[in-house]
Design a protein that fits this description.
Helix content is about 40%, strand content about 30%. The protein has about 230 residues and is of the alpha+beta class. Strands 5-4-7-8-1-2-3-6 form an eight-stranded antiparallel sheet. Helix 2 packs across helix 3.
Amino acid sequence: MDQEKIGKFIKKIREENNLTQKELADKLGVTFQAVSKWENGKNVPDIGILKHISEEFHINVDDILSGQITNKKKNNRIIEILLLGFIIIVIIIGIIIINNNHSDYEFKTISSKCADFKITGSAAYNKEKATIYISTVEFCGKEDNTIYRKISCNLYETYNNSKTKISSCNEDKNTNLEDFLKKVDMKVDHFSSSCKNLTANTLTLEIEATATDNKKVTYTIPIKLNDTCQ
């Protein structure tokens, strides 16, 4: 056991915690002369004092007796610091991504221009793209209890006299119009138009129903964007 090395280690602990010899002595319940002897390598604390130092400064007794923090402890501390830094960086990046994904988007509601149908939906857009979501389509026209063997719906975009189908849904089993519409849920990601073009587009939802006697009925529902894009 190297008393001088232990003494230097105790002195280092005291100075790192901004304590005088008397202040350390008061914490440990000894005289400042005892602390002075430890630091000068003339004596070492007894086991009770060593445990007190260990608990007070969160240091292993073995480290005090060896006069240094073991490499394992140093490495663990470095790993803890690096891990904490990594977690903080990930959190910051996550916050930036979330803010970027939400802050540059504007949202507008979309609805139907047709009195026979009520449409609930929204358009999310930024300077580069728009996303369209239709969550509800309700038939509010003349009662239709017909059982159809097939019903399909198609969402069309007309822009610069060019008509393009951008989403669709269908049902190939016997059902009525009301039950079919309850299942309609349409989302168009990465919609080609930005908001400034979205208002110039014509969005149309077409529903085609084929009855059991092969008679067909077609509903054409113009869709409008409520409010004006910024």
